[in-house]
Amino acid sequence: DAGSVLSFAYSSVRGYGDVHPTLGELRVGYLPVEVKHPLTGEAVEIGEILATECEMVSRVQVDEQAQEEASLPKFGLGYGFCFGQSEVKAMSMSMLDRVLSAAKESGVHGESGSAANEEFVLLHVDGIEASGFTAHYKLPHYVSFQADISVLERTRKHRAAQFAEAVEKRQQRINTMEAFHALNEENE
Fold first, then answer.
1. What pLDDT digit, counting tens, does each position of 66-75 carry?
2. The pTM is what?
3. How many independent structural domains does the chain possess?
4. Which of 52, 126, 147, 182 is most deeply buried (CB count within 10 A of its CB)?
């Protein structure tokens, strides 16, 4: 997961996007885990988890027309959070958050790179989905492969029949032309 999030975030700052963030704050620490007590209804701390949180700031890109309508340039905030200590993942998430937010704000989805397309990012950042789909190729695919072979064979037979028919029609035209020439020679 961290690798795919990092790849999308990196693509947004290296040539396929216009988000150049500045690290606002990066925090790593333990957070309390609380649950509601079933009898008293009060919050009870049952433990703690290690987490990483990041805020990135970047200038909001405004086109010239919007610049005239809106008054001043501004900054936008990107936020990232993950369990455990993973500064790179949290930073990458905050960069992606900024890229996707900028795309939504400007109404430009995916035009400045794949990291600006929310659907594309969400479908491809899921490591479990991606590894599961890729791993399924290890399973026997003889049924679908056999179906592909059948289609290929039918196509070849169909094309061979079309070619044979075209050759036969051409030969018939040649025979007709020869017969016509022979008939003309007899009549002269």
1. 555 555 677 8
2. 0.65
3. 2
4. 52
